[in-house]
Specification:
The structure holds two protein chains of two kinds.
Chain A lengths: L1 E10 L2 E11 L4 E5 L6 H9 L6 E6 L2 E2 L6 H9 L1 E4 L11 H6 L2 H4 L7 H11 L15 H13 L5 E5 L7 H18 L2 E5 L3 H7 L2 E6 L2 E6 L1 H5 L4 H8 L25
Parallel strand pairs in A: 3-8, 3-9, 6-7, 7-8
Antiparallel strand pairs in A: 1-2, 1-4, 4-5, 9-10
Chain B lengths: L10 H32 L4 H13 L2 H27 L5 H39 L2 H7 L4 H40 L3 H9 L4 H27 L5 H32 L4
Helix pairs in contact in B: 1-6, 2-6, 3-4, 3-6, 4-6, 4-7, 4-8, 4-9, 6-8, 8-9
């Protein structure tokens, strides 16, 4: 279980997370939705320890991320997670199978002789085969995402964090990736947090959906409840309307909207 | 952007911001240096990565550093011979001047500068691209980190390779000088060689050789630092690469003076 309480994070003068409270139950897929720059990816990076919250706590299986000190503790913590980066973040200089098995050396005690077989198995899980010796530059966008997903699951994590898994893909590939997330959920029984602003994908994969706006959680509910939410912010976002309480500037020279500071 | 985005800061504000950024960057660099030296002893070294870097930095740089030294030796011989003929009516001590200049100063400094321009720039660009495409973050999530996986192998590779490249430059430069001394001034091989061995001692070689370790540390750490702290996209990578090369070259020349002063103080001169 992942439990975040009052998580705040700023970068210089920019306050990104302003007190995030979220609980992710074991076995569920929590989808975090919200506009660009609302802090979704920052929250994910705080969970895995890439960013350290300025305030608040993140506790995973009883372990407080902020209290990890030794190298062994950090390695043990990271072993629990698979992380799918927005653009895949595959290592250009390595082949597909080297990418997939890269973390095994550091996160597991598996013999190197078994790496190639594990890479093929992970590729099969994401619906790919015979591309083990390709370089990332030789793959399409959808294939890169799938290889990145294979890399995220190679060390058999308990948690998978998806950072915008469908961004930049065509509608069919978007649906394929959503199906894959569901499949992995069923086959590997992992707990997942997925960050997205693709509502179709969110409805499909989510056990619950949390709406993040200006660094705070506005609502957490089952997808069916989110669909009929009365919260005007959630309503505007899921309907994809430009008019509503969430103000976004159309042009750079427009004045900052007065209502932008309000959260509810 | 609208004017209401923040109070306008004057020239003092810009200066203050610049000072703060420089101080922050210096602190980050100090952290990287401390981590590199500290973690080298406590972590398993990535020897495969180190070997790859030795090939990239060393073997691939050898032709260009050798050619630079070769022509430097040639021009030294040409200038020395011409000056000597002008003052003494015959080319005296050409081998001595070529060898001393190369072994103590020019080969270490020029080799380091050429390697900074070639391998240092490549490192900053590669690591910078890894940073902006989140590959560095991916290293963390996969159980390692950039200092252990990227910086330490490059640092070790530089420490091994730059002294060897410099020795190669010493020889090619002296050989280049000999070709000119022989062809242009008809200096016999034995005279050229005796001019070198009769006047030069092992400590002169050690003087130049020790300096290469300072240059290797500077070029590798500055290039890695600029790479892993890259911000922004392609423009950020370009800026990091440029500043890695410029800072490395300036530091090579500045530290050359101080390293020479320290070595002189210890009598290695």
């Amino acid at each position: 279980m992942i439990e975040a309480q009052g998580v705040k994070k700023s970068f210089g003068p920019r306050s990104i997370l302003r007190g995030v409270d979220l609980k992710v139950e074991t076995g569920e897929t929590l989808v975090i939705i919200g506009g660009s720059g609302c802090g979704k990816s920052t929250f994910l990076k705080c969970v895995i320890g890439l960013h350290h919250p300025d305030e608040g706590t993140i506790v995973v299986d009883g372990i407080n991320v902020a209290e990890l000190k030794t190298e062994a503790e950090i390695a043990d913590y990271r072993r629990r997670f698979g992380y799918l980066f927005q653009e895949g973040a595959l290592f250009d200089s390595m082949t597909v199978w080297e990418n997939i098995t890269f973390g095994l050396r550091y996160l597991t005690d598996i013999e190197p002789g078994k790496y190639r077989k594990i890479a093929s198995d992970c590729l099969a899980l994401v619906g790919l085969k015979d591309i083990e010796d390709f370089k990332p530059a030789e793959l399409s966008g959808g294939m890169k995402k799938r290889v990145a997903l294979a890399r995220a699951i190679a060390a058999q994590p308990s948690y998978i964090l998806y950072d915008e898994p469908t961004t930049g893909l065509d509608p069919i590939m978007t649906d394929v990736i959503s199906d894959l997330i569901l499949d992995l959920q069923k086959q590997l029984k992992v707990t997942a947090i997925a960050v997205t602003h693709d509502m179709r994908s969110a409805y499909k994969v989510a056990s619950r959906i949390a709406m993040l706006h200006e660094g705070k959680v506005l609502e957490v509910a089952h997808p069916d409840i989110i669909k009929i939410s009365k919260n005007p912010y959630v309503r505007q976002f899921v309907d994809g309307k430009s008019e509503g309480p969430i103000k976004m500037k159309l042009k750079d020279f427009e004045a900052e909207p007065a209502a932008n500071g309000a959260n509810k | 952007m609208s004017g209401g985005n923040g109070p306008s800061i004057g020239i003092i504000g810009h200066f203050g911001r610049g000072v703060l950024e420089a101080a922050e960057e210096t602190g980050q660099f100090a952290f990287l240096v401390r981590s590199t030296f500290g973690w080298m002893t406590s972590y398993r070294i990535e020897w495969r990565q180190t070997l790859i870097q030795i090939v990239r930095v060393g073997v691939d740089s050898l032709p260009v550093t050798a050619m630079t030294a070769f022509f430097t030796g040639m021009v030294l011989a040409l200038q020395t011979g011409a000056s000597s003929k002008h003052f003494f009516n015959e080319p005296l001590f050409v081998g001595t001047v070529v060898a001393f200049s190369l072994v103590m100063e020019l080969a270490p400094v020029m080799t380091a500068i050429v390697v900074a321009g070639r391998a240092g720039a490549a490192i900053a660009a590669e690591l910078g691209t890894m940073k902006v495409t989140e590959q560095i973050d991916a290293l963390y999530t996969l159980g390692t980190d950039p200092i252990r996986y990227l910086v330490i192998p490059r640092f070790i590779a530089f420490m091994i390779v730059l002294p060897l490249l410099t020795v190669a430059s010493d020889f090619t430069g002296i050989f280049g000088g000999y070709l000119v001394a022989h062809a242009k001034y008809q200096i016999p091989r034995t005279v050229y060689w005796h001019d070198i061995v009769n006047n030069m001692e092992i400590r002169h070689f050690v003087h130049g050789f020790l300096k290469t370790f300072v240059f290797a540390a500077v070029v590798s750490l500055v290039s890695c630092f600029k790479g892993v702290t890259t911000r922004g996209g392609a423009e950020g990578v370009g800026k990091s690469t440029t500043s890695a090369v410029v800072i490395s070259m300036v530091l090579i020349l500045v530290l050359d003076y101080f390293a020479t002063a320290v070595l002189n103080a210890f009598g290695i001169t």
